[in-house]
Amino acid sequence: MIHGEDEARRLDTGDPGHRELFHVPPATAGRYAETAYLAGNSLGLQPRATRDELLADLDAWARLGVEGHLEGTRPWLPYHEYLTATAARLVGALPEEAVVMNSLTVDLHLLMVSFYRPGGTRNLIVVEDGAFPSDSYAVRSQARFHGLDPGRAVLRLKPRPGEDTLRTEDVLAVLAEQGERIALVLLGGVNYLTGELMDIPAITRAGRAAGAVVGWDLAHAAGNVPLELHAWDVDFAAWCSYKYLNSGPGALAGVFVHERHLGDPAIQRFEGWWSTDPATRFEMAPVSRPPARADAWQVSNPPILAMGPVRTSLEIFDRVGMTELRARSTRLTGYLERLLDEVTATRPVTVITPRDPSRRGAQLSLRVGRGAGELAKRLRHEHGVIADAREPDVLRAAPVPLYSTYHDCWRLAEALTHLVEETR
Ligand SMILES: *Cc1c(COP(=O)(O)O)cnc(C)c1O
């Protein structure tokens, strides 16, 4: 039993967030009507506006047929452009540096076609040892694609023995020591497992100074922490939209390409008809004329019905703003951390996410001993709390500043006191 339910309620009154904009799943257990949803780092909740906006696009198809490409309130032909400004502001990009397209890993491949160009002795790709598996598969297959042995071409950054997260100084040391051999640095902005926020500007600076290209996977960073990709001189980045960005399962991904690479005629790129300048697209010419925009990395005409939910969600982020969200996120996650400290003081559970709020986003990861999946099940089926397990031993909980409450945090801590036995 953990005290402070009244305090949680009071904090929610004073610092309410924007929960009313979202559908919160009903609880199937416990004492409360709604789930305490702390898995927005895995799949964000559905904005209430999404359904009507999506239906409007579907209606345009019913009413207009093929003419919907050019008519209606949101003609399809330039549809991806409706997402550009909001996506760009979200990550601190110039409008020409951002585009929403495809899925995350597909985009990483398309970007590596352009930005992983091994040659001579400079052929390493630097990733985190704890990289998301898809990223690990992607970089290994890119190395093989270039005829390289992935076991040698992929350099994995490991935390120090006994530590769970990377230290910036250690990453910088590797970049300095191996600099001349590194072709590409591709790291997660926020690590999916530990919740560690990397020092993106410092690592980007060091990687570029070493002569490498520096790209970021921002799957767990976009919509979670403020980003200034243009000012930080990041070469490229990609992020999915179904985690903090609440755009629905498998939603389209976002891509950033720095201005200095736009319109570069020497750059290699896989192209299709959407890579070319929209003004000349229907000339159906045999040679593409790519615009000096990230749009040039598009290949196919985009799936309009999948873009709608991303558009709706990005507009919410644009209205509320990452500054406000980050401030509430810091308060909310700090509050959860205090409660978890009470829980863990007497139980065999530890927080592995960095303690410094500037080195993490919303997520706190707990090492819970074996059986993280079983614990997550019991949280849900006995207490109506949804957190996310990574087997064997990590439970991830992310109070999302748009819709999570202090009371959700309290419910997780309270449920853990019932489910994890005291050993001290
Ligand atoms: C969620 C996530 C992915 C998922 O990749 P998809 O291509 O969207 O299936 C990849 N990388 C990271 C770091 C992630 O967090």
TrEMBL record:
This is Kynureninase. Homodimer. Belongs to the kynureninase family. It comes from the Bacteria. The modification N6-(pyridoxal phosphate)lysine is found at residue 243. Catalyzes the cleavage of L-kynurenine (L-Kyn) and L-3-hydroxykynurenine (L-3OHKyn) into anthranilic acid (AA) and 3-hydroxyanthranilic acid (3-OHAA), respectively. The keyword Hydrolase applies. Keywords: Hydrolase, Pyridine nucleotide biosynthesis, Pyridoxal phosphate. One of its GO terms (molecular function) is kynureninase activity. Pathway: Cofactor biosynthesis; NAD(+) biosynthesis; quinolinate from L-kynurenine: step 2/3; Amino-acid degradation; L-kynurenine degradation; L-alanine and anthranilate from L-kynurenine: step 1/1. InterPro entries: Kynureninase, PyrdxlP-dep_Trfase, PyrdxlP-dep_Trfase_major, PyrdxlP-dep_Trfase_small. It catalyses: 3-hydroxy-L-kynurenine + H2O = 3-hydroxyanthranilate + L-alanine + H(+); L-kynurenine + H2O = anthranilate + L-alanine + H(+). Pyridoxal 5'-phosphate binds at residues 104-105, 132-135, 217, 220, 242, 273, 301. Its EC number is 3.7.1.3. Its cofactor is pyridoxal 5'-phosphate. PANTHER family: KYNURENINASE (PTHR14084).
